[in-house]
Amino acid sequence: MINNLSIMLIDDNVIDLFLNKKFIEAHKLANKTTKFEDSHEAFQYLHSASAADWPNLILLDIHMPIMDGFEFLELYNTLPIENREKTNIIMLSSSILMSDNEKVLKYPSVIAFLTKPLNITELVQLLKDKGIIKP
User: Fold this and answer.
1) Could you list the residue range(s) of the whole structural domain that residue 16 is in?
2) What share of the chain is helix, strand, coil (3-state, %, to 5)?
3) Total-model pTM
4) 10 - beta bridge partners?
5) Which domain CATH number covers 83?
6) Any residues with CB less than 8 A from the CB of 123 and at least 6 apart, and which?
7) Are strands 32-36 and 88-93 parallel, antiparallel or unpaired?
8) CA torsion, points 81, 2, 134, 73, in degrees to nearest 10?
9) What is the model's pLDDT at position 94?
10) What's the pLDDT band for 109 if we cut at 50, 70, 90?
């Protein structure tokens, strides 16, 4: 499966970043994968990136130091709508708190909440179901 997606990974856990990037590469889900250990750096990248350099999909960890996933989403919503419209976000967390799950639904860019570790089969099915990749 070869997809023309650009995926951004944001997670303070370097092991999760490494594994998720390898899963994406092994399943050929993206032609470009960028990763950030710091959500503030990811925001700065998006803030200064041209529309052509924006990812189609962001996998965003919820619980991070400095700026957590929810704080990132608040800042993300200040970015130009024309850029945000082409990007979907999937929130990731090792926590299965219902309050987190309910809170992510308030953000229109967020299409799902998945628990960590990332299950690549579940991710692929979700992307197919949402029409982001072809079945």
Assistant:
1) 6-129
2) 40, 20, 40
3) 0.94
4) 36, 60
5) 3.40.50.2300
6) 23, 29, 90, 114
7) unpaired
8) -30
9) 84
10) very high
Q: Which residues contact 45 (CB under 8 A, 6 or more apart)?
A: 34, 36
Q: Which long-range contacts (CB under 8 A, 24 or more apart) does 124-128 make?
A: 124/1, 124/27, 124/29, 126/90, 127/29, 127/57
Residue with tokens 């639904």: 105
* 120 neighbors 19 (Cβ within 8 angstroms): no
Count of the separate structural domains present in the chain? 1
Residue pLDDT, tens place only, 40-58:
999 999 999 999 999 999 9
**Residues making up the chain, counted from first to last:** 135
50 belongs to a structural domain: yes
